[in-house]
Design goal:
By secondary structure, the chain is an alpha+beta fold. Helix content is about 35%, strand content about 20%. It has four domains: about 300 residues, FAD/NAD(P)-binding domain, CATH 3.50.50; about 140 residues, Elongation Factor Tu (Ef-tu), domain 3, CATH 2.40.30; about 90 residues, Arc Repressor Mutant, subunit A (Orthogonal Bundle); about 55 residues, GidA associated domain, C-terminal subdomain (DNA polymerase, domain 1, Orthogonal Bundle). The strands form five sheets. Strands 1, 2, 6, 7, 8, 9 and 20 form a seven-stranded mixed beta sheet that branches. A hairpin with a 4-residue loop joins strand 8 and strand 9. Helix 1 runs parallel beside helix 9, helix 2 packs parallel to helix 11 and helix 12 packs across helix 16.
């Protein structure tokens, strides 16, 4: 019935969709297996993409040739650029999405790829031969062969849903859990653990009183995620903000004795930075209120996502407490919130390609690696799909460095440091975040995507044109100068120091609070310079303003790169290096870093250990 495939992808969430699309676009024959064909590309939690650091990841996925940015652009109902008041390293795009259109768009994109076949079934086990995966065995007992397998099981591995004192097996609400894979992998020598995540109640939007809430509108001039010609957003749907209060908190506390989190029935660690509402009022007892974001789930639905009210308390407690939130007095609930526990595999068991160390040609991506979030899952899926294809066709692997992308930071963090709680990306995790901005993801990664075969010639030329355009503009701004009498009045109106001599516009732009608008209308030669494409102008201004800071970060990159040039052999005998600290030796033996640079990022490996390793290598 089945032919042999190059790559089998298990699971059709954000990681699975990106993995299947990437491998198939590169030329592999792909089989995408999911337990429900109607849930492909499902937004299981909040109907949004992007956010702080996450928006940068979506831009990077797009620049490499992935689909998340395109799918988001075509289905978003609101767009906001977060942190505009801060420096460009902090600017982060975020979109509110239409949940149903998002999933539909993903499915249509995958179905349009003739290299992808689909099969609806549960994968119950892997086919292993000589420590190499050769296929999968489904719940129906079918054995399907492949050169590489990518597991993107999300929360389905032995998933257990909790609502108050009730618990039942499931990978998502009304969907059964996946069994068999965890047990087999443990028998093969893998280490497994449990993690927890949660979701809030869904509400009938017709029952809410929006007049007492704060409206949160989208940007006046909404941007996009994708660097392609996706359609601009011409109309937007507002979100709203309301708050909990002391009465809400007191009602929630009445359910603590039945909370699976507080009674110990949930063993898995939850996301620290996205706690449940009961966890928030317990940990931050001094806070009188907490924000609630009221988010529509699409253009044509009345369903509302209550962001900030994730909970696993009994449904009657959820209902009673939520009805005391301003605007929710007469609310009608569609379904209660719940927590879900699931299996994951500590990612220190992976290589940088996301291939497992114990079983070759087997790749993990998404929540199976201990991450949380659509964006984190999608970028892992993209990288696993790329590398599964390359391995199947006996080509060199594709690995992104920490200095090249947030994706590189995420993967290096996972396999080098591991995680004992759901890993979420933040700008603070990237030591080179000034270089890894959302505005320059295409400049950083498009050419890599083109070399792989995911980016076509037209997109590569477009990126080259942008690079040439902003470099030319920078040169023009160095040559165009203004006289004191032309600019000082404007500077004084803004409280800025006047200039005393004719000065290049590029030098003046380095000043804090000096913007392009300050120079418009002074003379035609300046106006002509700034009439270039908006993206080109923005890129040039950022490069000019932060030139010195970029130079410092590039210097740091070069220094760290020198450590990554030292290769640590896989079979290096750390026990023979007596001067290593005990903790450092144990961590090095467990993780087996590929380079001295990676070793330096392992928690527990000291600077002294690195110096000792360097001496050993040089000997």
């Amino acid at each position: 019935m089945f032919k042999d495939y190059d790559v089998i992808v298990v699971g059709a969430g954000h990681a699975g969709c990106e993995a299947a699309h990437a491998a198939a676009t590169l030329g592999s024959k792909v089989l995408l297996i999911t337990m429900d064909m109607g849930r492909i590309g499902q937004m299981s939690c909040n109907p949004a993409m992007g956010g702080v650091a996450k928006g940068q990841i979506v831009r990077e996925i797009d620049a490499l040739g992935g689909m998340s940015g395109i799918v988001t652009d075509k289905t978003m109902i609101q767009f906001r650029m977060l942190n505009r008041s801060k420096g460009p390293a902090m600017w982060s795009p975020r979109a509110q999405s239409d949940r149903w259109k998002f999933a539909e768009e993903w499915r249509l994109r995958l179905e349009a790829n003739t290299n992808i076949d689909f099969w609806q079934d549960m994968v119950a086990g892997l086919l292993i031969k000589d420590s190499r995966v050769i296929g999968v065995r489904t719940g129906l007992g079918m054995e399907i062969k492949a050169k590489a397998v990518v597991l993107t099981n999300g929360t389905f591995l032995n998933g257990l849903i909790h609502i108050g004192e009730k618990n039942f097996s499931g990978g998502r609400s009304a969907e059964k859990a996946a069994t068999g894979i965890t047990e087999q992998l443990i028998q093969l020598g893998f280490e497994a653990g449990r993690m927890k995540t949660g979701t809030p109640p869904r509400i009938d939007g017709r029952s809410l009183n929006y007049s007492v809430m704060e409206e949160q509108a989208g940007d006046e001039n909404p941007e996009k995620f994708s660097y392609t010609d996706t359609p601009p957003l011409t109309k937007q749907k507002p979100c709203y903000i309301t708050y909990t209060n002391q009465e809400v908190h007191e009602i929630l506390k009445t359910g603590f004795d039945k909370s699976p989190m507080f009674t110990g029935r949930i063993q898995g660690r939850g996301p620290r930075y996205c706690p449940s509402v009961e966890d928030k009022i317990n940990r931050f007892a001094d806070k009188e209120r907490h924000q609630i974001f009221v988010e529509p789930e699409g253009w044509d639905t009345i369903e509302i996502y209550v962001n900030g009210f994730s909970t696993s308390l009994p449904e009657e407690v959820q209902h009673k407490a939520l009805s005391k939130v301003p605007g929710f007095e007469n609310m009608r609930m569609f379904r209660p919130g719940y927590a879900i526990e699931y299996d994951y595999f500590p990612p220190t068991q992976l290589n940088h390609t996301l291939e497992t160390k114990l079983v070759s040609n087997l790749y993990f991506a998404g929540q199976i690696n201990g991450t949380t979030g659509y964006e984190e899952a999608a970028c892992q899926g993209l990288m696993a799909g790329i590398n599964a294809h390359l391995k199947a066709w006996e080509k060199d692997p594709f690995i992104l460095k920490r200095s090249e992308a947030y994706i590189g930071v995420l993967i290096d963090d996972l396999i080098t440091k591991g995680t004992e709680e759901p890993y979420r990306m933040f700008t603070s995790r990237a030591e080179y975040r000034l270089l890894l901005r959302q505005d320059n993801a295409d400049i950083r990664l498009t050419f890599l995507g083109h070399t792989l075969g995911l980016i076509n010639e037209e997109r590569q030329k477009k990126t080259s044109s942008k690079i040439n355009g902003y470099k030319e503009l920078i040169q023009q701004l160095k040559e165009v100068k203004v006289n004191p009498e032309e600019i000082n009045t404007r500077f004084e109106q803004k409280g800025l120091s006047p200039i005393r001599e004719k000065t290049a516009v590029s030098i003046l732009l380095k000043r804090p609070n000096v913007e392009v608008e300050d120079f418009l209308g002074i003379k035609e030669s300046i106006d002509i310079v700034f009439r270039k494409n908006k993206e080109v102008v923005e890129q040039a201004i950022i490069e000019i303003k932060y030139e010195d800071y970029f130079a410092k970060e590039l210097s740091m990159v070069e220094k760290m790169q020198s450590l990554d040039d030292y290769i640590l052999y896989e079979k290096l005998n750390y026990d023979s290096i007596q001067a290593l600290s005990t903790e450092g030796r144990e961590k090095l033996k467990k993780i087996r870093p590929k380079t001295l640079g990676q070793a330096s990022r392992i928690s527990g490996v000291s600077a002294s250990d690195i110096s000792i390793l360097l001496i050993h290598i040089n000997k």
